[in-house]
Specification:
seven-stranded parallel beta sheet; 237 residues; 14% strand; Rossmann fold; alpha/beta
């Protein structure tokens, strides 16, 4: 795979060090995967495909066009996972309407008060959950922090987590690190995750691929999912 998003950000010294230290080997897939779709809500995507500077005028946390560029790949991952009976778990924000429980989020963005009372915490229509999918609410970046996710994965006997969604440097990365910490295999589709800043996106993918996950194209993960045996999981009706 040659089209690595981080290639143009690395120095020759970076490449030499990573190679000499032995990082970046493929961890491989397990046998019982789950697809985790992180925070694909209007708050982070906006309500249409448009440049990010236009989108954040209305949706301060939006990633603009990058979000909508990732939607077709995420949509295909979801469709194939459902077809194979692989669990699809969505995350979205869990917060009071008045923002009182936002914790330290409130101190890190001068526009944080704009979220109060706005109904942007809904998964975009293009990727809407269906019966049998699982929707998980979280207050912090990682999908594992203070949620029942690890208990649900234990119940499903999952050994592999595919993490798509946003943002690459934030909730995706935090979720990947926690999945790795629970000794799960992790795959990240580089064209099905996104961020507000190109450098943050690219360097976060580089770091995850070096140490915590296998970063690859969504099409490669889709091809693997198509071979997963049906009937492995007892999912909600």
């Amino acid at each position: 795979m040659t089209d690595r998003p981080w290639d143009r950000f690395l120095t020759s010294s970076d490449r030499e060090v990573i190679s000499a230290a032995g990082y970046g080997e493929s961890g491989g897939f397990g046998e019982r995967p789950v697809l985790l779709v992180v925070d694909m809500t209007y708050n982070f995507c906006g309500d249409r495909a448009e440049p990010i500077l236009a989108s954040i005028k209305s949706w301060r946390a939006s990633c603009g066009q990058a979000a909508w560029d990732a939607v077709p790949q995420i949509k295909e991952l979801i469709a194939v996972a459902r077809q194979r009976g692989v669990p699809v778990i969505y995350t979205l924000r869990d917060a009071r309407d008045d923002g009182w429980d936002r914790g330290r989020w409130r101190g890190k963005n001068r526009r944080s008060g704009e979220d109060a009372g706005r109904d942007g915490n809904r998964i975009i229509t293009e990727l809407a959950p269906q019966p049998g999918d699982i929707v998980l609410r979280k207050q912090k970046p990682s999908a594992f922090f203070a949620t029942p996710l690890i208990a649900q994965l234990t119940q499903l006997r999952c050994d592999t987590v595919i993490v798509a969604g946003c943002t690459t440097s934030g909730c995706v990365r935090a979720t990947v690190l926690d999945a790795f910490s629970y000794n799960l295999r992790v795959a990240v589709p580089q064209d099905a995750v996104f961020d507000r800043a190109e450098a943050s996106h690219a360097v976060s993918l580089f770091d995850m691929n070096a140490k915590y996950a296998d970063v690859m194209r969504a099409a490669e993960i889709v091809a693997w999912l198509r071979a997963v045996p049906r009937g492995l999981f007892d999912l909600p009706e």
